[in-house]
């Protein structure tokens, strides 16, 4: 009776789940289908993100296949070797072929996973000798400064964008161009993370600061994307947000030209018909004067 009651409850929950899913609109169903195909992996906007997505999907499918095989063997053992009487079944102390098989099989699985991971890692970290755009990213407690070293502003210095306590810094990038990021930290370890890049890199201070902390991407989608510090770097780590604004190559060239003429980030973005302020994140409410002061770049 108890077993029948449990089956009834399970059936009722299944029916409730089906009715709930039928209440979703088409957009929601498409969303869940797309995420199921990607096995929960978010959709990236760079060429490098596609390589990492393929590794994730392949690894997940391999794990699922192995899991199904293990579950099938467990089910077979339960069914084929269930108790059939009081007679003690034949005892097997050693099975050398089986022991060799389950020693070699995990090694082959690990070796295969390592191989595809290394190939993907090399592809993601590969760098062209002459990238189209170079961005110097300076991280400090607790904000970001983005410098375009190949430009010259009205003051004779390279164009840069830096955040404040009331303004989210916006990093403007062109699509379909190879972009090199050179990361540097003024104090502690930070981590440059744009979720849609499907990639993040620790910003480690030291003698090779800004030299070894380098990676390249090619953005393929226009839009606005939130960026964050992914390394717990201090009390106000949560304040280290920024925004990536990817635009067409022509819009990017117009933006840089406007910045070189002396326009601010806000004015240059408005000039190319882009919102002048960040749209993906907003500054947190800073109520302590000390925090406001520490959000200013060193030397100002």
TrEMBL record:
Keywords: Copper, Electron transport, Membrane, Metal-binding, Respiratory chain, Translocase, Transmembrane, Transmembrane helix, Transport
Enzyme Commission no: 7.1.1.9
PROSITE patterns: COX2, COX2_CUA, PROKAR_LIPOPROTEIN
Biological process (GO), any one: ATP synthesis coupled electron transport
Molecular function per GO: copper ion binding; cytochrome-c oxidase activity; oxidoreductase activity
Listed InterPro entries: CcO_II (IPR045187), CcO_II-like_C (IPR002429), Copper_CuA (IPR001505), Cupredoxin (IPR008972), Cyt_c_oxidase_su2 (IPR014222), Cyt_c_oxidase_su2_TM_sf (IPR036257)
Sequence intervals crossing the membrane: 55-79, 100-119
The Cytochrome oxidase subunit II copper A binding domain, residue ranges: 130-258
Keyword Cytoplasm annotated: no
Membrane disposition: Multi-pass membrane protein
Gene3D superfamilies: 1.10.287.90, Cupredoxins - blue copper proteins
Taxonomy, superkingdom: Bacteria
One GO cellular component term noted in the UniProt record for this chain: membrane
Top-level EC class as recorded in UniProt: translocase
Catalysed reactions listed for this entry: 4 Fe(II)-[cytochrome c] + O2 + 8 H(+)(in) = 4 Fe(III)-[cytochrome c] + 2 H2O + 4 H(+)(out)
Subcellular location: Membrane
Keyword Transmembrane helix: yes
Function: Subunits I and II form the functional core of the enzyme complex. Electrons originating in cytochrome c are transferred via heme a and Cu(A) to the binuclear center formed by heme a3 and Cu(B).
Family of the protein in this entry: Belongs to the cytochrome c oxidase subunit 2 family.
NCBIfam families tied to this protein: CoxB (TIGR02866)
Name of the protein in question: cytochrome-c oxidase
């Amino acid at each position: 009776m108890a077993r029948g009651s449990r089956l009834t409850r399970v059936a009722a929950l299944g029916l409730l789940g089906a009715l709930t899913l039928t209440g979703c609109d088409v957009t929601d169903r498409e969303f869940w289908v797309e995420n199921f195909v990607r096995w929960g992996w978010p959709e990236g906007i760079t060429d490098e993100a596609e390589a990492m997505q393929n590794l994730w999907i392949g690894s997940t499918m391999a794990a699922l296949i192995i899991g199904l095989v293990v579950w099938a063997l467990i089910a077979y053992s339960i069914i084929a070797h269930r108790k059939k009487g009081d007679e003690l079944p034949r005892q097997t102390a050693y099975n050398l072929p089986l022991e060799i098989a389950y020693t070699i099989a995990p090694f082959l699985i690990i070796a295969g996973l390592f191989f595809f991971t290394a190939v993907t890692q090399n592809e993601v970290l590969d760098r062209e000798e002459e990238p189209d755009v170079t961005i110097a990213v300076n991280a400090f407690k607790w904000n970001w400064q983005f410098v375009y070293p190949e430009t010259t502003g009205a003051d004779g210095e390279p164009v840069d964008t830096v955040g404040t306590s009331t303004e989210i810094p916006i990093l403007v990038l062109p699509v379909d161009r190879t972009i090199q990021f050179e990361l540097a930290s003024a104090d502690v370890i930070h981590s440059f993370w744009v979720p849609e890049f499907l990639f993040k890199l620790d910003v480690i201070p030291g003698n090779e600061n800004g030299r070894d902390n380098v990676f390249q991407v090619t953005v393929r989608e226009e839009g606005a994307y939130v960026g964050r510090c992914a390394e717990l770097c201090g009390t106000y780590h949560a304040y280290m947000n920024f925004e990536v604004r990817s635009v067409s190559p022509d819009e990017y060239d117009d933006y840089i030209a406007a910045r070189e003429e002396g326009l601010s980030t806000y004015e240059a973005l408005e000039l190319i018909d882009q919102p002048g302020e960040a749209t993906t994140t907003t500054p947190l409410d800073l109520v302590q004067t000390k925090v406001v002061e520490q959000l200013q770049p060193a030397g100002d």
